[in-house]
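Deliverable D4.2, example record:
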Amino acid sequence: MKTISTLVTLVLTFNLAAQTTKLVGMGSIQGGGIFSINADGTNPQQWVDFLPKEGRSPYHTKLVEAGGKLFGMTREGGQEGFGIVYGIEKDGTNFEILHNFNQSDGADPYGSLLLSGSKFWGMTRAGGTSNNGVIFSINIDGSGFTVVHEFGGFDGGFPTGSLIEVGEELWGMASSGGFNNKGSVFKLNSNGTNFSLVHDFEENSGWRPYGSLTMANGLLWGMTHSGGLNSSGVLFTLDLDGSNYQVRHEFENETGLDPYGDLIENNGKIWGMTTEGGMHNYGVIFSVDFDGTGYSVIHNFDDLNGSLPRGSLTSAEGRLWGLTSGGGLKGGGTVFSIDNDGNSYTKVQDFAASMGNFPNGSLYYNGGEFWATTTTGGKNNHGAIFKISASGSEFSKIFEFGRSTAGGSLSGGLIQSNSKLWGMTSIGGQSESGSAFSIELNGSEFKEIHSFEGADGAIPFGNTLVDINGTLWGVTTRGGGSMILV
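Output generated by the structure prediction step:
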């Protein structure tokens, strides 16, 4: 629900249809909505919210494969606007929403899904009773969504990474909360029971982890975004029973700082990335020996070839692959690869707004192709799913987030006819060319009555429908000429 001040602005800005003491209006920001408010400014009510029903802004995520399909999450959008869990075929068809988050069962999911048995496990950064986030599970077919644990702050809050499976246990990190309110490491049984706090982060030894744990060489490895002796984050290890927390490296400006993502094991070493620091202050790729020594900067990111990585490296085709959230020729980020020994950095793809911008996540590899998401860009500017061949020669955008079959970006005003309100949207609908709709005077029974297809008109803009002798007339800016709505 928007605040009264926002609603009053919309009332003053957009065409209104008045009935008795109630004003009804439409807004076009972020898809728009239909609202009502009494003439004296009281009782604002949101009737219809044209949210991106298919989700928007996937963030810090890596797609997961199960049963030949790809699965992921978006931070926003969906029926309630708090994000979704979705599945999609590898060619971009059959997009399916498995779950719409509704705040009480979680909101703003970060990180990736974990497939364990026949279920996905994941976390949201907010929502739940205390609004500190939740751990959830859901069956692959979308049934059986269950909130397994609600973070209360004292046990952690606002998790921004993913869960990992270690034996019969699931492990994860929260970016805040815990005894020192600096974040925590926790674990629970793989059936969702016996949640326990393993480690409380604190200022001097690193805090605020923005990633996931990694199991390598008999230890759990992780990074914090802040804290440590240089206040720039640390690389740490834990024994598999959660004891013996050790700082293995203190990040600092010259060799990389503020890590954001996960570590991976590759070629006998631990590898990772930082978002800032290094020679050009755009982040670095680094490696470290299994005993925690031998920290080495492998690559310094620069603006032209990619900058500010906010995901993790992926090992495939004898190389390491990754994404940067900025830089490149168009400034929208890049896909890159680098040899396993750290030589021969190659920029594979530059992102631009039309294909998707600012990827904040990691690549998923299968059969010579990579899949990943972008946070913004695409036709709707709410992010996209893309795939790219390992050679870099074949790039395709296979899905764009933020579409709505109910339409979006409302056009013109509302009119009252036959005891209903009628209006149009300039985008959305089945063919993304706009729609005409009706809604009852009390805000119920919203119905799309026509979806423009181009041949019969497209993108109505700045015009209001006109009722002439019981027939509604309207004009579109593109496609066919005028049309009659009966």
